[in-house]
């Protein structure tokens, strides 16, 4: 730590599960005042979670929260800063709600402004984030071929109903659909090879999906650029996938999707993706729990 001040309180929360043993863990520092980039990276590396979140005072003019509940938030993986992280946003919102009650929050991220609403129903606290405006982009045949080679996935194992695309809703994710649940479950990829490709394409994760039904999907997210083999529950990728599925007409414009993630890692979680007519942004919600 390069700061001369006291070490900040470091909280640990999981997102997208009501159990500490499920979902995706995140480090949460509610007051990162005085920490520089190196300090935040060191804390994230020490925790070893896919991302950790750090709060400071909001930039001037940021509004929309209740009673000053607006913040600047930054996210660090064990290797580098990332522009947006959904699960750490949900974890942070739930940590704040446990201290100041449910309600509306506003986070200034590197990707843009992300409102979050926290509600309590029947003793369960649920946070819903609203993404920045999303978009998709094509991937070249050469880059797709390299991705499949790194994954060791034959092209015939892809679902032809889901064209490969790069989707963005705060961070860039390559969406690939498996034709079977067995294909999705069998994930043993070349870490260094996929990491190099992802750095070149500026990808945060590769979102691998399998469609169980019209609105239920199973997903996995390799995250080698963050120094993590696989992310257990990925809110930013869920938002990107919702935008992708809507843009390609794979789901209705008015839809609620359930994404199951983490089952193959022994950390099951559920992400709810809501699409609303006339609203280009994507809403991702989930529960959370404090760890230890």
Automatic annotation (TrEMBL):
* Species of origin: Streptomyces lichenis
Matches recorded under SUPFAM superfamilies: Diaminopimelate epimerase-like
State one Pfam family annotation. PhzC-PhzF
Name the keywords, alphabetized: Isomerase
* Similarity comment: family membership: Belongs to the PhzF family.
Entries under InterPro entries matching the protein: Phenazine_PhzF-like (IPR003719)
Protein name (Swiss-Prot/TrEMBL): PhzF family phenazine biosynthesis protein
